[in-house]
Structures are given as C-alpha cells and as structure tokens.
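Hi support team,

I submitted a single chain yesterday and got back a structure, but I'm not sure I'm reading the token output correctly. Could someone confirm the output below corresponds to the sequence I sent? I've pasted both exactly as they appear in my results page.

Thanks,
R.
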Amino acid sequence: MKIKEENFPGKDLFTGLFGEDVYLVGGVVRDLIISGDIDNRKDIDLMVVGYEYSELEKVLKEHGKINTVGKSFAVIKFTKDKVTFDISVPRMDRKKDSGSSSHKNFVIESGKKVTLEEDLGRRDFSCNSIAIRLSDGSIFDPFNGTDAIKKKMIVMTGPEAFADDPLRLLRAARFSSVLGFEIEEDIYKVAKDVILEELSAERITEEFFRTLLESAVPSKGLMEYFKLTILEKLYPGIYRMALTIQDSIFHPEKDEFGHHTVFIHMLTALDIGKKLADIKGLSEEEELALLLGIILHDIGKPVTTKWEFKRGRMTVTSIKHDSVGVGLAESLLEKLKVETRMKFPLRDVILKLIKNHHRIYDLYYNRTEIGFKAFSRLLRDMDGRDDLLIFLDFADRQSREPEPLNFSDVDEISNWYYNRKEELKISEDTIKPILQGRDLIGLGISPGEEMGKYLKKLFELQLDGSFSTLEEGIVQFKKIRGANGSK
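Hi R., thanks for writing in. Yes, this is the structure output for that exact sequence:
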C-alpha cells in the first residue's frame, strides 16, 4: 500500500528516524484500507518497535515538541509543523485482579520485550488490529482484519476483548453505526455476560456522544445498544420504550416484525433529527441537545401508557408523558453526569425540550385563538432555544410519514411558527424583563420580598403583551401599586 508524503506529512521524517521499525496502527489503518487515503485525519497513531519509551522520547524531542501526558500508556504526543501524532512503543495490558473489569485494574508492560503482534492482539476488533509499515506500505495483519473489513464485519480480535475493557461493547455499536458494518454473532452471545457497572459515567457518556455525533444514521447505533443489552444495563428507561406499544393509527411507524413501539418511533425521529442538524448546520452542542431531546422526549410513556376508550374505539394513550418524562430524564442525565458542554447548558436545554415537545403543534392546532401571549411564554420557557424545539417537533411528526427521511427542510407547520413569530415581533429581546429592580427603587420600592412580587407580576404582564416599553411598564406598575392601596 502506497503511503505518500503528500497526504501523510511527516512520513519522511519518521522513516528517516526509525527506518522499517515504524508502523501506522489503529483506526487510521482501518480507514486507509476502507477509503484509500488518510487526508484530513485528526488522529494518527504510530508505533515504533524495538525501542524503550525513554529511547523514543529522547529521539523525538530533537525534532519537534513532545508531550508525555500518555506516559503510563507508553504514548508520546509529538507535534511537528502544527500536526500532532500519537507515537507509542508496543505494549501489553495484564490484569492485576482477574475478577475485575475496571479500566484501572491493569499493569502495563511495554518496550522491546513486547512484540508488534502482541500489541495488536490486545486491541478490540480485528479491523483495528492491523499495522502498516510506513516505509514500504506492507500490511501486518495477524488477525485477518482486512478480511473483516472486506466483509464489513465487526469481529473480536480475541475472546478476552470485552473482559479486558467492557467499554468495547459500546465501541462495537459505534463502529457498526459509523462504518455501516454488521456485528459478528459471537459478540451478541458474549454481550449478555459483559458487566458494564464498573464503567465510569464519563466514559459511558463520551462513547454515547461519539456514536450520536459521528454516525450519519445514529438509529443503527441505538439499535445495536438494544441488541447488545447495553440499553437494558445502562439505560433502562430507554430500554422500556421497546416494551411499550403505541397506537397504530397515530403512529404507523413499525419495525420489520410489525411492532408499533415507542422505541421504533424514537429511532425514526432520531435519524430525522440527525439529517436536520446537518441541513441547519448545528454546532456539536446544539446537535447533541436535539438528538438527546429526541431520544428522551417519550421516556415518560412506559409509565403513563394505558388503554382508553376514545373516539369510538380502544386507543393507546400516554397522558402527561411529557411532564413525567422530565423527571425520568433528569435522573438519567444526572447519573450520566450530563450538565454543560463547552459552556452550552446541555442538560437544561434537553429537559426543556422534553417538557415542551408538544407545544409547537399545540400552537398550530389552536392557531386561530392564540397570539402574543402564547408565543412569548413558549420562548421564555425555552430560554430562547425554540429553534431546537421546532426541529424536535418536526422530527416527531415526520417520523409518521411513509418516507420519513424524504425531506429537504422543515414543513408548513414549522414555517407557520416562524412566520407568526415574526408577525408578532417576538424575539429573545422581547422576553427579557423590561423593568428591573433599579427602576422600582427609583419609584420608591426597597429591595426585598415586595419588590420581587412586583417584578414577577410585571414580567407576566409584559409576556401577556400589556406593555413593551419602560414607560408603559411604569404605568402598569403604578396601576398595580394603586390597586394594592399603595401611594
């Protein structure tokens, strides 16, 4: 396999330093075999055999900037010409306690005494257990990874793959979803007995987020979570959606066996949300909020669903599933330590999406009766992120269409909301309180409980459309004060 300096900056440097002892390893090899190039790769892993870590460090520091933050894993971050490489010596992981699957329960052996094959053998799947010699492009593939790639299969490198690190079960789902590969049947058999409880919330959440962000079809990743018992073990609230039926008239979407479940509805809406995120150019944080809002918007249905005689027939209903779902989602997000991400209030936005996910359609349904008040209160309740609510609402409704992914933008209901909001001249600025405490101080009100009551009442009147300027607000304040018997 030809590896040219043009699309692999640094090739000549590394082969000049280490000759035939330097190899490309890891995901970059897999992707190179799949696509034929490695342009725009952010993570490039190299391995140098026949060296101790200290020897590798000594050589590299003469040619670029090094960071030894990965020393415990025998990895050096090497930066040259603004490109960073992860460069390691071969290593093996040996368990300290055979009864524990904790990622802290390992002793790492590395350096000259560990062979290239032994290093590749500790890796999770055969498609990730391939090395390419940088100097001549020859492939070293002791576990038939190239064959697995050709067959588009996720295959365990060895029987201890998940015992060594249970997170690999979640990685199997991610690789399957991102690469479009199928998972070998043996992995499903092993998955039932894999213990996931010792995994940290941070590792679980980051892997889950990567599945959602990196996959063009995140529903495949979630379906693999279901099949690999990950949902049952880590996300029981989501797992119960697969056991909860929906009314087939209102929710015609179904799986290949004809089951109309909340889970299938959610998976369909999830892929719609992913396509919308791409169309609208959402940031990673906005995309995560939307996708997690879609995943959890019906989490309250398993505990609220019942049969009810309505419209002349027995109907499946889920009254108040939105408000019930907020509490269930909040507990799950707390368990997974989902709070803020890059200063974006991820947790709060997700919960607001769940609580309000029916309100866009409710406004449209009652469009002849509602106006400024209803719109301004919705915008206030969403802290100005009604754009994400529109996208969730669209995904929720679009999932019921015969060809749910056949769209290029939001529909007429979404556009009605945009247009009506513009007609009413409602924006984030209009839902900010016009009157502040300092204004009331100037009108003779001291800070304290009384001021708080006045400000709350005035803000409610502002949202009702009773005033839109400071002067009008002062008039309203004087009316309220007069009605209270105050001067």
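A quick pointer for reading it: The first strand starts at residue 22 and ends at 25. Let us know if anything else looks off.

Best,
Support desk
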